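Input record, target 12 of the design panel.
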């Protein structure tokens, strides 16, 4: 019986996020995809399978420049059937995070090439690829964007407005937090704390300066996915500002919560089985 697989891709670039899902029907779904240097390994993992969906969490260089490269080249075999995202506007990024806005601008310069492939997602949207169901829990909101309390603060507007979604398979469930920071984590908790429970969680913003501990408490995962090269996973304990804790504190939280299974990209690409392909027996009704 064919399985449902999740690959947490190891970084070829300095740091990045790329996750590949393979369905039991042999289709692929890519989340972010990292940078152009990460594409050769991504191609190996996808292995020539049709890419049914590509989901982009937010417009930062370590998440979307690989996809922007594919889009700018044209005719790439990795070109997906659908691309799901909801990025902040160029004006919002120019105003609130000018240092990082170039990544969005370079994406927008080729965005038209997506044509019918583009799907703008919002909170509450649900889409499916084979046995996988994707539920959007948080997305950028034009009328109510998340803005750091102090302009120029280390909270990043691109990160805080990351797409957050859950993936449900017939076996395990996965929570994707992108690079969401503490402010985005607060919104997520206020609206969706009941929806966060999952088996596997992708640690927000590479485990460094991400959502608060309460998001992980609500998720109660048994497995953590860390997009962390060794220098980031093993960084010195640090506190940046405004609840922005370093990776070591996030690791402490998960230890306190009793999580034992940590998959870290510094150790190479991680392969997880989400579903073994066996149908669960129907519960026996009483009476
Ligand atoms: Fe990132």
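The sequence produced for target 12 reads:
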């Amino acid at each position: 019986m064919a399985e449902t697989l999740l690959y947490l891709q190891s970084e070829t670039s300095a740091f990045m996020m790329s996750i590949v899902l393979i369905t039991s029907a042999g289709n692929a779904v890519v989340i972010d995809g990292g940078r152009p240097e990460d594409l050769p390994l991504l191609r190996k993992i996808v292995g020539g399978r049709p890419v049914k969906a590509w989901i982009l969490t937010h417009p930062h260089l370590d998440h979307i420049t690989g996809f922007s490269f594919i889009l700018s080249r044209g005719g790439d075999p990795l070109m997906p059937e659908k691309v799901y995202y909801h990025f902040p506007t160029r004006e919002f990024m120019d105003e609130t995070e000018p240092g990082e806005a170039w990544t969005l601008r370079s994406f927008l310069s080729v965005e038209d090439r997506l044509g019918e492939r583009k799907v703008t997602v919002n909170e509450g949207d649900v889409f499916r690829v084979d046995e996988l169901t994707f539920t959007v829990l948080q997305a950028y909101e034009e009328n109510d964007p998340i803005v750091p309390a102090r302009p120029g603060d280390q909270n990043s507007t691109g990160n805080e407005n990351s797409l957050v979604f859950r993936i449900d398979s017939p076996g395990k469930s996965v929570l994707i937090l992108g690079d969401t920071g503490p402010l985005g984590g607060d919104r997520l908790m206020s609206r969706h704390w009941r929806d966060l429970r999952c088996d596997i969680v992708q640690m927000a913003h590479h485990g460094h300066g991400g959502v608060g501990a309460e998001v992980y408490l609500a998720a109660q995962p048994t497995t953590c996915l860390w997009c962390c090269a060794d220098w980031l996973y093993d960084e010195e304990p640090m506190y940046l500002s405004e609840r922005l804790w370093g990776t070591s504190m996030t690791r402490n939280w998960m230890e306190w919560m009793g999580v034992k299974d940590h998959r870290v990209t510094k150790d190479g690409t991680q392969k997880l089985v989400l579903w073994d392909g066996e149908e669960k027996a129907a519960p026996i009704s009483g009476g």
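Residues 17, 60, 62-63, 179, 206 surround fe (ii) ion (CB under 6 Å).
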